[in-house]
């Protein structure tokens, strides 16, 4: 063996890949040190043996075809660890490259077994990390939704609270003045709510408020905004109405709805007083509109309750 050949052999023997060289009969001519580490098979045992006997995992039609094509056509092939697991019947993830080398009109097959186990472990760790980030992000979004709900929705009835109402109402107010469209508002108060609380208790009083919120949502149009203003007071924003009559149609549905809540053997008859106002070009802002609806509501209450009154009549 010349000094150059010894150097080349030393390089192949010490390279950080499993290197196997086969002759035209698929017998092993070279089995380097890294291959010994991967397989725990000594090079002396492997050399001059058939590759399919030493590595039974390669004793498959497509591997044999690959080796034949490499010898005859010089075709290079690559087998990924992801698609071909347990090439050496161990726990290693190995990529395999198959190619042809020639010397003095002789053909040989070069097989390179590349250990990518650590890469697969890193990929698995990254997948786990990404999955954990996804779960964390999902939890954060859920918490954000909960926080937003607490910030903008009434915890008892589930309708919008005063903060969200004004946030939405101010936008509709600006749009109404720009476009010249009318914006209606209802101020609703539960008649004799203090008496209900004193008679049936605060828990049942809360049930009444929840029931009222359901009635209001059921009676309003799609796009109307129902909000709890505070205590036993509710607001309904009615965008794009044509006149007071449009608002009165909704108010009529509310007053004519079934407003009876069972309390044991008793029935709590709920009545609502409703005041209606409309934002026009002469109105200043939403606060003024609320005050107008509030005044109209008290007018309805003064007439016995369970009815509605429009500010234009005040």
Description of the molecule:
This protein is an alpha+beta fold and 314 residues long. The chain has three domains: 3-115, PAS domain (Beta-Lactamase, 2-Layer Sandwich), CATH 3.30.450.20; 118-152; 155-313, Alpha-Beta Plaits. The protein is built from eleven helices and twelve strands. The protein has helices at 3-14, 33-39, 43-46, 51-54, 61-73, 117-152, 162-179, 193-200, 202-219, 244-256, 286-302; strands spanning 18-22, 28-31, 77-79, 94-103, 106-115, 182-190, 225-230, 233-241, 260-263, 266-269, 272-279, 307-310. A five-stranded antiparallel beta sheet has the order 2-1-5-4-3. The chain has a five-stranded mixed beta sheet with strand order 7-8-6-11-12, with helices on both faces. A two-stranded antiparallel sheet has the order 9-10. A hairpin with a 2-residue loop joins strand 7 and strand 8 (233-241). The chain is rod-shaped. It starts with a helix and ends with a strand.
Question: Helices, strands, pairings?
Answer:
Elements: H1 3-14, E1 18-22, E2 28-31, H2 33-39, H3 43-46, H4 51-54, H5 61-73, E3 77-79, E4 94-103, E5 106-115, H6 117-152, H7 162-179, E6 182-190, H8 193-200, H9 202-219, E7 225-230, E8 233-241, H10 244-256, E9 260-263, E10 266-269, E11 272-279, H11 286-302, E12 307-310
Parallel strand pairs: 11-12
Antiparallel strand pairs: 1-2, 1-5, 3-4, 4-5, 6-8, 6-11, 7-8, 9-10
Helix pairs in contact: 8-9
């Amino acid at each position: 063996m010349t000094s150059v050949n010894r150097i080349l052999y030393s390089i192949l023997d010490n390279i950080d890949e499993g290197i196997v060289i086969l002759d035209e009969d698929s017998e092993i001519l070279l089995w380097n040190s890294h291959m010994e580490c991967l397989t725990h098979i000594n090079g002396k045992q492997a050399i001059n043996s058939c590759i399919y006997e030493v590595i039974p995992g390669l004793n498959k039609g497509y591997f044999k075809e690959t080796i034949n094509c490499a010898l005859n056509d010089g075709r290079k092939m690559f087998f990924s660890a992801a698609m071909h697991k347990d090439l050496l019947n161990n726990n290693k993830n190995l990529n395999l490259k198959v190619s042809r080398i020639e010397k003095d009109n002789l053909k040989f097959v070069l097989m390179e077994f590349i250990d990518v186990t650590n890469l697969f472990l890193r990929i698995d760790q990254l997948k786990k990390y990404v999955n954990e980030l996804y779960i964390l992000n999902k939890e954060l979004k859920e918490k954000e939704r909960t926080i937003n709900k607490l910030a903008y929705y009434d915890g008892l009835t589930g309708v919008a609270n005063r903060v969200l109402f004004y946030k939405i109402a101010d936008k509709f107010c600006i749009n109404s003045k720009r476009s010249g469209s009318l914006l209606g508002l209802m101020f609703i108060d539960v008649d004799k709510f203090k008496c209900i609380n004193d008679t049936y208790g605060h828990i049942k009083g809360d049930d009444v408020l929840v029931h009222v919120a359901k009635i209001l949502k059921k009676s309003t149009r799609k796009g109307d905004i129902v909000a709890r203003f505070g205590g036993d007071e509710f607001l309904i924003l009615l965008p794009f109405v044509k006149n007071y009559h449009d608002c009165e149609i909704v108010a009529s549905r509310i007053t004519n709805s079934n407003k009876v809540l069972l309390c044991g053997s008793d029935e709590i008859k709920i009545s609502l007083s409703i005041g209606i106002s409309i934002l026009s070009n002469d109105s200043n802002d939403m606060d003024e509109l609320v005050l107008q609806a509030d005044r109209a509501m008290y007018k309805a209450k003064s007439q016995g309750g369970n009815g509605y009154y429009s500010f234009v009549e005040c």
